[in-house]
Amino acid sequence: MHQPAPESPAEAVARLRATFRTGRTKPVGWRVTQLRSLRAMLTEHAADLVEALHKDLGKSSHEAFRTEIDFTVREIDHTLDHLDTWLRPEPAPVPAHLAGATAWTQYDPLGVVLVIAPWNYPAQLLLTPMVGALAAGNAVVAKPSELAPATSAVLARLLPRHLDPDAIAVVEGGVPETTALLAERFDHIFYTGNGTVGRIVMTAAARHLTPVTLELGGKSPVFVDRDTDLETVAARLASGKFLNAGQTCVAPDYVLTDPDTARALEPALVGAVEALYGTDPATSERYGRIVNERHFDRLTALLGSGRVVTGGAADRATKYLAPTVLADVDPGSPVMSEEIFGPILPVVTVSGLDEAIAFINDRDKPLALYAFTESDETRRRLASETSSGGLGFGLPVAHLTVSDLPFGGVGESGMGSYHGRYSIETFSHRKAVLEKPLG
């Protein structure tokens, strides 16, 4: 039997725009129905997603639920609980010369939104932006990552079945398909990935004056102060760094600390890695794999940038790279020249807080900055004297799990933010309205 040709990106956008113009996506009831259906998809087909995530990234079931499925379900539940309040028009005072008039702001959906997802959290980072876009009343073109093909295939199969197929389109494929999509006019483009592609997205968006949200990355530093509980520091560092085999945009990228603390931290990190993954992480069910050979080769080339404290083992056939800590790392070494995005943690020594702040400020603004310190003054100085997308004291990565906090970068690490109410703001136009009675 002859199969119809797949829908082109141009056809998908035209179809969704026609749906949006009917007003179908604007009622709150439609938005709530989509969110509930998306939640049902995640819970009913969790096994399919877990299997796909393991195939693409070696993710354990525990990690797939924690960082992809349950994460997105919590975002949906939070949005459903607060959506009516977030969408409520907000009154604004009017000046005396407009006595008798009333003014307010209201959120209008933008129209047709493009969401381009990365491969490292291929379900969460496609679906969580979609939660905000749907809650704001938009039609959505979803572009899953071709570097996570199993997850992309599952999402392409399930999303049109569970969501309004006239308002949702999934476009699979690689660079040609993404290029074709970017040639179309959208009302907003939401991209998660690296700065190189981010520039391509922004250039394409500029042709149509389309607003963009860019969730990028960068080298997120960690400052470890003197006289801290290094066992706790090491446990939390290892947990945040080696999650998803280090392939996390807000993972701690490198550690800054003084020489004495650096030496004392080494055995603590060895113990922390063993506590998480055992003496042979290659056999741990909870430790993932590098996404492909290209990234594996890039990462193993960085291993010579310092003295290996723990880890260093690698197997290209299985894309396994052990959780690795490097000491005696020179700031000019290859591992410090790019975002690592893998399970390698360099430790760079500085004389103290002043040098650490200068080190951070001499580089691009990171997506996140972390610090372990008992000093209120140190926390105050890091908060006031540095710039980063997010700032975490005592616990890395966790800030992005708080739905009432905006998640996003600054400068090279991105622009715009989302999660919770901030997603509504991102995917809406806040329209000013004034009414003056004719009488």
Describe the structure.
With 439 residues, the chain is an alpha/beta fold. The protein is 41% helix and 19% strand. It has 14 helices and 20 strands. A seven-stranded mixed β-sheet has the order 10-13-14-9-8-15-16, sandwiched between helices. Strands 5-4-3-6-7-18 form a six-stranded mixed β-sheet, sandwiched between helices. A three-stranded antiparallel β-sheet has the order 1-2-20. Strand 8, helix 9 and strand 9 form a beta-alpha-beta unit. Helix 3 packs across helix 4, helix 4 packs parallel to helix 5 and helix 9 packs across helix 10. It is globular and about 75 Å long. It starts with 8 loop residues before the first helix and ends with a strand. The mean pLDDT is 97.
Any descriptors?
439 residues, alpha/beta, 14 helices
Gist of the model:
The protein has 439 residues and is an alpha/beta fold. It has 14 helices and 20 strands. 46% of the residues are buried.
Span between N and C termini? 68 Å
- Alpha plus pi helix count: 14
Main β-sheet description: 7 strands, mixed
> Percent of residues in helical segments?
40-55%
Any idea what the shape is?
A: globular
Overall strand count: 20
Low-confidence stretches: none
Q: Name the strands of the widest sheet in spatial order.
A: 10-13-14-9-8-15-16
How big a fraction of the residues is strand? 15-25%
Structural class: alpha/beta
Radius of gyration, in angstroms, nearest whole number: 23 Å
Report mean pLDDT, rounded to a whole number.
97
